[in-house]
């Protein structure tokens, strides 16, 4: 819905002016388990929706009255289309004679932007990763995640004090796998624990050495199995990456680290037949 209904100008205008939109996920990927209060409220909404004979499911649009009663709902199968969701919201506005909220009310109920991810380990490096389908006609949105390399891990790519042009460094397989298992295609579910690194490498080659900076060329290859069940029809992510990095010799730290896919594809199977999807990938160091 994020790249369809929730990106539609009319839907955004209706939600902003007449409702207090709240996004709640039942999946807590890479997060702590939901609180008992949150689980209890979702269960209450589900039961109230069912009692009133309204449509819905795990992924749905629910409209709640101030007292918590579910007054309307629409399943994601219909709500992801703006031509369905906009009239649905407009009818509620009309039937309930809702008044547009003031600009101040909108501002006061708008959540603050998510702060940048920060390393949890001393001297760690955060990498922000994005993946989307190359074919925009079948666009499923954008998957994004964050990966932390410890200081010990990223320093394996750091050039030595006497580095010369042409010197090459290689990232250990375990550290490469930590990143590559997060380069997953947009989809409903993903758990890195179900992904297996068949092969993967990342090398950094010194291109130039200046007074205080070293510039490096990055090259990587990915072969990840997902889900790894041991069957010939397990999905496969394969890609070649290229990129560049800058290293501060004085601070002994990377100041820039960027990768992008040169070739990337995810092949999954439906009824035994391969379903290839071309992908675009990007990785950038968080500053």
Tell me what you see in this structure.
The protein is α+β, with helices and mostly antiparallel strands and 287 residues long. It is built from 7 helices and 10 strands. The chain has 2 domains: 5-108, no CATH class; 125-285. α1 (9-18) runs parallel beside α4 (82-95). It is elongated and about 75 Å long. The model has no long low-confidence stretch (mean pLDDT 92).
What is the fold's blueprint, element by element?
Layout: H1 9-18, H2 36-51, E1 60-64, E2 70-75, H3 76-79, H4 82-95, H5 103-108, E3 125-133, E4 142-149, H6 151-154, E5 168-170, H7 173-180, E6 196-209, E7 213-225, E8 236-248, E9 253-270, E10 273-285
Antiparallel strand pairs: 1-2, 3-4, 3-10, 5-6, 6-7, 7-8, 8-9, 9-10
Helix pairs in contact: 1-4
């Amino acid at each position: 819905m994020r790249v369809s209904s929730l990106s539609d100008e009319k839907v955004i205008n209706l939600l902003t002016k007449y409702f207090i939109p709240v996004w709640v996920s039942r999946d807590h990927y890479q997060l702590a388990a939901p609180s008992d209060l949150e689980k209890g409220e979702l269960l209450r909404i589900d039961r109230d929706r069912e009692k009133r004979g309204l449509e819905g499911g795990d992924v749905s649009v629910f409209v709640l009255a101030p007292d918590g009663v579910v007054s309307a709902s629409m399943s994601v199968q219909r709500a992801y289309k703006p031509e369905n969701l906009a009239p649905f919201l407009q009818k509620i506005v009309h039937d309930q004679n809702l008044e547009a909220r003031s600009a101040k009310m909108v501002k006061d109920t708008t959540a603050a932007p998510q702060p940048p991810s920060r390393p949890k380990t001393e001297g760690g490096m955060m990498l922000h990763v994005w993946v989307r389908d190359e074919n925009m006609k079948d666009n499923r949105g954008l998957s994004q995640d964050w990966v932390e390399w410890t200081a010990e891990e990223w320093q394996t790519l750091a050039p030595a004090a006497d580095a010369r042009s042409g010197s090459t460094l290689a990232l250990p397989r375990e550290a490469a796998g930590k990143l590559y298992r997060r380069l997953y295609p947009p989809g409903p579910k993903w758990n890195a624990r179900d992904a297996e690194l068949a092969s993967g490498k990342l090398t950094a080659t010194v291109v130039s050495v200046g007074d205080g900076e070293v510039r490096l060329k990055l090259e990587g290859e990915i072969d990840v199995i997902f889900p790894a069940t041991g069957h010939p029809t397990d999905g496969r992510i394969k890609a070649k990456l290229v990129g560049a990095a800058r290293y501060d010799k004085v601070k002994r730290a990377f100041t820039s680290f960027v990768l992008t896919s040169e070739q990337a594809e995810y092949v999954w199977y439906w009824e035994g037949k391969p379903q290839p999807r071309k992908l675009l990938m990007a990785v950038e160091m968080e500053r």
